[in-house]
Write a sequence for this structure.
């Protein structure tokens, strides 16, 4: 017998019947494929698939981690102050400002990468400006560099950072901040000891929402990078149709998931220790 | 006091710069829809032209891809909303064994990179011998959208007063009538929000779609497939149209929300 929230009892099968179609869909097209990915990753050679794939792609794996971490950090540095200003000083314009933050999502993801290709191109405004002020010579460019790809990754996932940080900052009780200022004085110290710790759940959520898609991306590397900027996703997508590489590519998928998990654990640890300090 | 004001000013400037940074590529997308590119790729500004706007369907494959995207998004939205809403109602209304596992199952797809979701699904389809096309794209989209719908609708259902259902039933309404006349209208705003989110996610999805589309092209897949040979300004025309329609929709929803809030 299942009990509804209002206390009226219903036949035991009612909740099951309600969730059955959705659960069946997720089971058939998410759980089972993941299991299949697992069995394929150890097919024709067992764990040696993992050794092979890591040996062949060690540079790509490390690069993927470093790009995703750098993009997440950059998104935090760019996005936290923006979220802070909207939450504390947005006033009646809050809704509009948040709308502007999600505006990039209203255009196609690939077109955004192409737009960065235009902006950072050899005859584009950014390179032109850097040449005009003398930082760049005539042969210097930004395309096909780490900076170009990390910059585009940062851009594409920045709203994922701003929104959760905004939500957590919005929830911070202003009276706590005022109390902090009354007791300690300095605005910087109040921020560090009161506001920042209280916004940590948002920072953590935002970092995950940025890090995960950035680590799995290959579109920005394709449009803004060269062979020296390939990421794990680039390797998988270049080989997905090759029958004989399926075990290796499955293993590489697990490497990507392990890398994300490692990133999350390290990050949780870092934030945790910072809280104690 | 003045140090504090300087900090506040600096923060404002920083926020403004970041907002501009968010806005610049969007401006480029719109601007370059009016470009007459030199060569096949619309990567450098040449001169103002309305050519792409007067002939957006120049390449019939682009038109097909665009309508395929709309078709997929409409079907995927309808299916995900039904499945996700049922799950949300069950998860909030009833206490039953396995609720924790259900929540984990719903969250898990959201924590996986798209490339892994897409690749594992591709492997499964090829194991089953299913040929890839519109059907497999819809299946893939529903898979990652159900979780979003369930989460969004749950937030709305949580505030629902279930006693209203009991009242309807006490007054003689059957369970179907009660759902149709009482429950559904009250949770409809949550479903609408979920539907818009799903439609946008489906329309914009590339990675999962690309791996499971076979020879079928959605708009993002078309953009990807043509990039080696050409990048026509028509892409920017479609990008701009989607942008404008989304902004108008968002504006309308915000306005109607405000009017409803004011009416109460």
């Amino acid at each position: 017998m299942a009990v509804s929230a209002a206390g009226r009892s219903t036949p035991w099968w009612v909740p099951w019947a309600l969730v059955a179609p959705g659960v069946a869909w997720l089971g058939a097209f998410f759980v089972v494929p993941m299991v299949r990915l697992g069995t394929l990753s150890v097919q024709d050679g067992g764990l040696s698939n993992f050794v092979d794939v890591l040996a062949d792609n060690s540079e790509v794996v490390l690069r993927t981690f470093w790009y995703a971490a750098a993009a997440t950090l950059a998104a935090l540095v760019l996005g936290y102050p923006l979220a802070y200003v909207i939450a504390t000083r947005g006033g009646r314009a809050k809704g509009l400002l948040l709308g502007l933050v999600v505006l990039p999502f209203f255009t196609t993801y690939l077109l955004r990468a192409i737009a960065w290709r235009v902006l950072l191109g050899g005859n584009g405004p950014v390179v032109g400006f850097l040449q005009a002020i003398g930082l760049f010579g005539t042969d210097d460019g930004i395309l096909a560099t780490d900076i170009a790809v990390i910059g585009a990754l940062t851009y594409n996932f920045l709203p994922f950072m701003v929104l959760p940080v905004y939500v957590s900052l919005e929830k911070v009780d202003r009276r706590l901040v005022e109390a902090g200022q009354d007791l300690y004085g300095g605005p910087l110290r109040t921020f560090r000891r009161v506001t920042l710790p209280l916004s940590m759940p948002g920072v953590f959520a935002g970092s995950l929402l940025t890090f995960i898609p950035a680590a799995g991306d290959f579109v920005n590397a394709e449009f803004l990078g060269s062979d020296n900027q390939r990421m794990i996703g680039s390797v998988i997508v270049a080989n997905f149709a090759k029958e004989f590489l399926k075990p290796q590519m499955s293993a590489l998928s697990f490497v990507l998931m392990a890398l994300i998990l490692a990133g999350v654990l390290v990050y949780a640890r870092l934030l945790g220790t910072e809280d104690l300090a | 006091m003045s140090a504090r004001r300087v900090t506040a000013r600096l923060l404002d400037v920083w926020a403004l710069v970041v907002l501009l940074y968010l806005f610049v590529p969007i401006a480029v997308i719109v601007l370059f829809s009016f470009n007459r590119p030199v060569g096949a790729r619309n990567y450098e500004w040449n001169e103002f032209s309305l050519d792409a706007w007067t002939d957006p369907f120049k390449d019939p494959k682009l038109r097909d891809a665009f309508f395929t995207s709309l078709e997929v998004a409409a079907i995927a939205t309808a299916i995900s909303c039904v499945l996700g809403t049922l799950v949300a109602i069950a998860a909030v209304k009833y206490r039953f064994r396995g609720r924790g596992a259900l929540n984990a199952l719903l969250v898990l797809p959201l924590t996986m990179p798209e490339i892994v979701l897409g690749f594992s699904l591709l492997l499964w389809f090829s194991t089953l011998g299913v040929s890839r096309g519109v059907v497999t794209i819809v299946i893939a989209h529903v898979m990652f959208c159900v979780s979003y719908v369930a989460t969004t609708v749950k937030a709305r259902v949580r505030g629902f007063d279930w006693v209203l259902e009991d009242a309807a039933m006490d007054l003689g309404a059957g369970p179907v009538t009660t759902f149709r006349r009482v429950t559904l209208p009250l949770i409809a705003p949550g479903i609408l929000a979920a539907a818009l989110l799903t439609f946008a996610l489906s329309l914009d999805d590339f990675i999962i779609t690309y791996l499971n589309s076979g020879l079928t092209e959605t708009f993002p897949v078309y953009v990807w497939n043509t990039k080696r040979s050409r990048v026509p300004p028509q892409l920017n025309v479609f990008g701009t149209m989607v942008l404008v329609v989304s902004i108008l929709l968002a504006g309308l929803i915000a306005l109607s929300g405000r009017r409803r809030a004011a009416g109460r």
About this structure: The first helix of chain A runs from residue 13 to 41. Chain A has eleven helices and two strands.
